[in-house]
Amino acid sequence: MLDITSYQNKKVLVLGLAKSGVNAARLLYKLGALVTVNDKKAFDDNKDAQELLADGIKVITGSHPVALLDENFELMVKNPGIPYSNPMVKRAQELNIPIITEPELAYQVSNSEWIGITGSNGKTTTTTLIGLMLNEDKNRRGTAYDAGNIGIPATAVAQKAGADDTIVAELSSFQLCGIQTLHPHIAVLTNIYEAHLDWHGNRENYVNAKMRLTMNQTADDYFVMNWDLPEMHELAKRSKATIVPFSRQGAAGAQAVLTEDGYLSYAGDKIMKADAMQIPGVHNIENALAAIAVAKLEGVSDEAIVAVLQRFTGVKHRIQYVQTVNGRKFYNDSKATNVEAASVAIQAFHDPIVLLCGGLDRHLPMTDLVPLVKKHVRALVTFGETAAQMNEVAKEAGVPFTQTTDLKTAVPLAYQASQPGDIVLLSPANASWDQFPTFEVRGDVFIDAVQQLAESEA
């Protein structure tokens, strides 16, 4: 970590806690800043705030009082999930207080090389694969550390990663809105679809947020992009970095490609058969190609790449195999918080699917799921605020459905609707916040419910 003095005696407001806010507050305090933390959760129920107060950090909880900003703060470190429409954030902008997110703070103190990964889908899998590939090659110096939106605060990683190490950071559009100097040597854009438009306001803002990943790159850097999406060809013109395209569909000019005879290849070098990968689905071929491109740019051997892809079985909550119950394979895809992600999961399987879906109502259309449900799904079990909307998808597809109150009751109902050989898939196509604090909690509830089902059916 760099020994910087720019935060000494600087008044900083950390808005919102969770992992990123807690770690940002602690780092700022360590750097000598005059830190105030403001979190909406009440103090008595706020363990994070209680611990920060015990550490000597000023905390204000229970609400976001706009008048707090009259205390002449010089910087706001904003929780990525808090939108810019929030009154506290709007007031900070009116007062010309700089607003950053936690990865920007991490980058400012880091002396490691950064690899940044963003996209609508595939970020976590691609980030994980890159980290594994870099660490698999024993000829490389240093260690690769996963960080960011993958669930590991970048500020925690930046304090332990050294000059020979690499920080492999998954960066959401929310986080990227708050970067200023963050400069990845290699940037990856897995794809761009319709997502988070309720937060960003429109698709243009969402795309612009994603493209902030490359805004500080130069010709000495690399930008790995999905060349199967025509939009990427235009977006590439906005980057100063060297473009490294990947393609599953044989797009002209791509360097990492799936060959006609089924090999994952880079710059004409066949590395391994795609069907030798452990993780299912064509989307994971794209994730693997993106990871291969980064690994080859970093000098990783083919042997290390193959070892990882033959061993890796997926990340938790992303088409994660849970267990088999009387011939039904249960998969947890709680991270599918939008239609595109759920579509990817549905198409990853060849066997009939019983789909568990529903969640937070963001007033977004679900109609794109209809043809996929008609083709791949035996039955739906719906829950959450969008249950009625998901029922309409089933009706249009001509597929039976059952509506229930919550995920725990949905699991046995899905089992009853399934047959031996079926896939029982939680892929909600909606955010979790109507009934769960995070998609991780939703996925854990599903895993527990499947375990209870297995015990009852044993």
UniProtKB/TrEMBL annotation:
Pathway: Cell wall biogenesis; peptidoglycan biosynthesis. Its EC number is 6.3.2.9. One of its GO terms (molecular function) is UDP-N-acetylmuramoylalanine-D-glutamate ligase activity. Residues 117-295 form the Mur ligase central domain. The keyword Ligase applies. ATP binds at residues 119-125. Residues 317-429 form the Mur ligase C-terminal domain. Signal peptide: none annotated. InterPro entries: Mur-like_cat_sf, Mur_ligase_C, Mur_ligase_C_dom_sf, Mur_ligase_cen, MurD. It is found in: Cytoplasm. Keywords: ATP-binding, Cell cycle, Cell division, Cell shape, Cell wall biogenesis/degradation, Cytoplasm, Ligase, Nucleotide-binding, Peptidoglycan synthesis. It catalyses: UDP-N-acetyl-alpha-D-muramoyl-L-alanine + D-glutamate + ATP = UDP-N-acetyl-alpha-D-muramoyl-L-alanyl-D-glutamate + ADP + phosphate + H(+). It is an enzyme of class 6 (ligase). Cell wall formation. Catalyzes the addition of glutamate to the nucleotide precursor UDP-N-acetylmuramoyl-L-alanine (UMA). HAMAP family: MurD (MF_00639). Belongs to the MurCDEF family. This is UDP-N-acetylmuramoylalanine--D-glutamate ligase. It comes from Lacticaseibacillus mingshuiensis.
